[in-house]
């Protein structure tokens, strides 16, 4: 069976676009295990990747629950600091975004602007995808001429469609989940194939 790291598709405008698209889930400590999300709004892609976490909208959570895919559970997150930026209306063909923070620091799109309660409300409920640990993994960063690779040692062949492993802090998916995500969230996801063996 094939397995993949579930990753974010390349955002427009490099690191600036990454902050606008995904926000930050690790800048503030979790409270009671709950992500304290900092990001732009009211637009949010249906699936985002702040840090190594995976966050989905309420509507996409419903699609996942109806998909028949296994292994995913959901934990509501806190919208700790949401700023109003309509970046989805900007020209994504440009090399740089039309508006950059005065400091030029990408995080200041969010950190230098006030929290906007109405933008936070418009985002709706947001959920972290949780998945159980099924084995271990190792990340080989390779050489300058080689792409990094992730190797998995899984506990069994009966692996759920969404899972994590001890080691690399990624969310992994089966080929079945990959095909579903490529159909439903193609603009926002990318995949890196893994080598897998079984304990």
Explain this structure:
With 199 residues, this protein is an alpha+beta fold. It has 2 domains: 13-130, no CATH class; 133-198, no CATH class. It has helices at 14-22, 58-66, 108-111, 117-123, 175-184, and strands at residues 3-8, 36-41, 47-48, 55-57, 73-76, 78-84, 126-130, 133-140, 149-154, 162-166, 172-174, 189-198. The strands form 3 sheets. The protein has a 6-stranded mixed β-barrel with strand order 1-11-10-8-9-12. Strands 3-4-7-5 form a 4-stranded antiparallel β-sheet. It is globular.
Concise overview:
By secondary structure, this protein is of the alpha+beta class.
Topology:
Layout: E1 3-8, H1 14-22, E2 36-41, E3 47-48, E4 55-57, H2 58-66, E5 73-76, E6 78-84, H3 108-111, H4 117-123, E7 126-130, E8 133-140, E9 149-154, E10 162-166, E11 172-174, H5 175-184, E12 189-198
